[in-house]
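Example 3.2
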Amino acid sequence: MTAAADLAITQPFDALSVRVSDGFSSFVSHILHLTKVSHSVVLLSLLYIRRMSKIYPPPPMGSEKVTFIIGLMLGNKFLDE
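Structure, written as tokens:
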């Protein structure tokens, strides 16, 4: 499998199927403003979260903040080295 095929999104994203706790959008905005991570880190972290969601069951409501932070940490670590 090529890298381009690995990164390709094969199914459309349905924004209505994503359920997050109250205040998650403001949390994400606040974290991204504080950390000043690059767009590449954010996109890579979303890719990691997408891959994880295909393998594991969805996390309990309210834990998406932790999942987002872990994705950012992994993306930043990968692109930093």
